[in-house]
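Lab manual, section 2.4: Encoding a predicted structure.

Procedure: take the sequence of the chain (293 residues), apply the prediction step described in section 2.3, and record the output as structure tokens. A sample record is shown.
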Amino acid sequence: MKNYKASLLVGLGACSYGVLATTVKHANEMGIHTSILTVAQFLIGFLFLLVLGEITTRQNKNIQKVAPKDKSQLFFWGISLGTTTILYYLSLRYIPVSIAIIMLMQSIWISVLIGGITQRKFPPLKTLVGAFIVLVGTLLATNIFAEKQNIDFRGVLLGLGAALSYSTSLLASSRVAVKANNILRSKYMVFGGLTFIVLFWNIETFQHFSGAGIFFGAMIALFGAILPPILFNIGVPKIGVGLGNIIASLEIPVSIISAVLVLGEPVAPIQWLGVLTILCAVIIINMPSRGQS
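Recorded output:
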């Protein structure tokens, strides 16, 4: 029963991530600039993690803190969180949510490539098969062969850039201060992302400042920087990383469904087939190998 509850929490975290793109695109359609959305998201998220980290540290004196030498590394790698957010949100200006999320999910095979290069180790066969299936699913999910499909490749390039940046942040998360508390690690990474975003947008944030921007920024912070980390930190340790990754892939269909319901974006049957194909790839990659429990 505990595993079911943990799985539900991870699923809710994935659903929370899934509504992000639709919320951003809806805000953009209302005339709210991306600058205020991203700054508000990271600022509110950082303040939340700052408070939560302080509470966690006081309640548990034996908690594994972040070593001084690791703080600067986490801050530096946190820049990739900022670039991921900026590139992903900018891609939504040019392409539908249903395609933007698929571009972001190219991080699946990009992570495999980066991992193989940095570790100088050939990936397992199942990982290579899964990565290939992702590419096949991408061709279907973007419906790229449709006669009337006009894809703005500016959005595609921005989405791929977000995927590359996201893969970099995943690499850092798996290698820097891995024994430290996740909330404390996230605090420094989000601070790095916030710093980069503020420098990137600079004066534009003030030019586009509005109450509506703060409201939507707070919503995005809730769905992207507050709920998922809490839900994942509770659920994933109980069900394992492999199953956690599989359940977390619910973000893809949730993103598309929310875009259909809220934005009225059309999605062809072949695109759903592509989504299903990508989900199958995630399952294959995260299946336990022989000899693993």
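Check your result against the sample. Residues 2-286 form one domain.
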